[in-house]
């Protein structure tokens, strides 16, 4: 048996990825210890599963298919900057994701319940849709005032809209250069 660090995500459209890359380029001159997400690693995380036994992957994929059957494709809008966990103590820089239909939040809620039935830990916090751009390199570091000011200046930056018509089960491999991701399965809505 082998374990695979895994998560469930929405792949991003090239327009959104390109917009995120441009936004990072605008923020980088103010960078003080921020580790930026590489272009190839952009995704919208729905549920982090952690270490998954490779023999459990087919069961997870089957469960994802059952859930996906209940959803039609829906649209998300990526616009506006967000500092997390708060503007006073930012450690993660992200783009807000608007879910006007409510489908994304409903999908994540269903994933949480269904994956808990399979033995995965439920997330204790409410799901806040966001696209991570970067994070401080240490939990003790905070984002600089210059970066916060630039985020405020770019506060309404609009990346675009995307139709969500599939979800993916992803494998994450931690290397010296950071994580690399591999798609284990793609499930259409």
UniProtKB/TrEMBL annotation:
This is RNA 2',3'-cyclic phosphodiesterase. Signal peptide: none annotated. Pfam families: LigT_PEase (PF02834). A motif (HXTX 1) lies at residues 43-46. It comes from Stieleria varia. Residues 16-93, 101-181 form the Phosphoesterase HXTX domain. The active site is at 43 (proton donor), 130 (proton acceptor). It catalyses: a 3'-end 2',3'-cyclophospho-ribonucleotide-RNA + H2O = a 3'-end 2'-phospho-ribonucleotide-RNA + H(+). Hydrolyzes RNA 2',3'-cyclic phosphodiester to an RNA 2'-phosphomonoester. One of its GO terms (molecular function) is ligase activity. The keyword Ligase applies. The keyword Hydrolase applies. A motif (HXTX 2) lies at residues 130-133. Keywords: Hydrolase, Ligase. NCBIfam families: 2_5_ligase (TIGR02258). PANTHER family: RNA 2',3'-CYCLIC PHOSPHODIESTERASE (PTHR35561). Its EC number is 3.1.4.58. Belongs to the 2H phosphoesterase superfamily. ThpR family.
């Amino acid at each position: 048996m082998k374990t695979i660090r895994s998560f469930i995500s929405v792949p991003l459209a090239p327009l959104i990825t390109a917009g995120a890359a441009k936004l990072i380029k605008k923020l980088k001159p103010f960078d003080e210890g921020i580790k930026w997400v590489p272009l190839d690693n952009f995704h919208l995380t729905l549920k982090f599963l952690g270490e998954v036994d490779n023999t459990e992957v087919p069961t997870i994929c089957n469960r994802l298919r059952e859930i996906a059957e209940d959803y039609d494709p829906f649209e998300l809008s990526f616009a506006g900057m967000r500092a997390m966990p708060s503007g006073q103590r930012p450690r993660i820089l992200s783009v807000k994701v608007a879910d006007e239909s409510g489908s994304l939040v409903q999908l994540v809620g269903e994933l949480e319940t269904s994956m808990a039935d399979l033995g995965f830990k439920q997330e204790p916090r409410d799901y806040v849709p966001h696209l991570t751009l970067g994070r401080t390199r240490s939990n003790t570091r905070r984002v600089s005032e210059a970066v916060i000011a630039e985020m405020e200046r770019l506060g309404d930056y609009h990346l675009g809209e995307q139709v969500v018509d599939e979800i993916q089960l992803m494998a994450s491999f931690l290397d010296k250069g950071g994580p690399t991701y591999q798609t284990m399965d793609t499930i259409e809505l």
